[in-house]
Write a structure and sequence with these properties.
The chain is of the alpha+beta class. The protein is 25% helix and 26% strand. It has a single domain, classed as Deoxyribonuclease I, Chain A, CATH 3.60.10.10. The longest helix is centred in the middle third of the chain and has 21 residues.
């Protein structure tokens, strides 16, 4: 089972790239972030023609998450508990082929300090409350998406530059660490324990050409799935396609 994550940064504006990658890579399941479109504008029919069922939670101009699957999708949740005033479309969850898959787009949190950073930390705490509930079920679970956190110094080309960036602040990294302590496994870091792996390259200053990247997109696997991990990689070349998202697709394969 090949599961991918792709922050598409505007699905309708980059639909051609998405379809090209789907055809070349052939993932079974794809978690998309930053749809930047309303529910009504989501390209369901086009994706269906490509063989993918879909569930999504859109939002005008910002955020938005979706799960695409070659298998049947049974939606189990959208949004997180804990803040009835939170209107951001950042979490959607489904049961697919015997696996619970949560697709998330964690808040960026910049600038630090400030209310956006406070919202990021609170959202992470709400996520952790939900993951504790997921851990109580005897089911395989994968939490997939753009976490907007660089957990280690290997996850950024220049750690010293990001010390006061919300993506690398110690508070963000500490909460990510506490999430792992619940029993979750960082799949890509497990596969590449000592390598600099990037999933995001800024549009500015030829970041992609210089390989000045960040690892923001992660797969967290629970105890029922961690031993099923076979391989994984970043399709970094997609970032170099014309009119590309600033993220590249990332994928893992599970023996399920």
């Amino acid at each position: 089972m090949k599961i991918a994550s792709y922050n598409i940064n505007g699905i309708n504006g980059r639909l051609t790239n998405l379809l090209r990658w789907l055809e070349e890579a052939g993932p079974d399941v794809v978690c998309l972030q930053e749809l930047k479109c309303t529910d009504q504008a989501f390209p369901e029919n086009v994706l269906k023609e490509f063989g993918y069922n879909a569930i999504w939670q859109g939002q005008q101009s910002w955020n938005g998450v979706a799960i695409l699957s070659k298998h049947e999708i049974k939606e189990t949740r959208r949004g997180l508990d804990g803040d009835e005033n939170d209107t951001h479309s950042r979490y959607i969850e489904a049961f697919i082929n015997g696996v619970v898959i949560g697709c998330l787009y964690l808040p960026n949190g910049n600038p630090y300090p400030g209310p956006k950073f406070d919202y990021k930390l609170e959202w992470m705490r709400r996520l952790m409350a939900h993951t504790r509930k997921l851990s109580a079920f005897d089911l395989p679970v994968a939490l997939v998406g753009d976490y907007n956190v660089m957990p280690t110094e290997l996850d950024t080309y220049k750690p010293e530059k990001y010390r006061n960036n919300a993506l690398f602040r110690k508070e963000s990294r500490e909460l990510f660490g506490l999430l792992l302590e619940q029993g979750w496994t960082d799949a890509i870091r497990t596969l590449y324990p000592d390598q600099r792996i990037y999933t995001f390259w800024d549009y500015l200053r030829d970041a992609y050409g210089r390989n000045a990247g960040l690892r923001l997109d992660h797969f967290l696997l629970n105890t029922q799935l961690k031993d099923k991990l076979v391989k994984g990689a970043v399709d970094a070349d997609v970032r170099g396609w014309p009119h590309s998202s600033d993220h590249a697709p990332v994928w893992i394969e599970l023996n399920v």
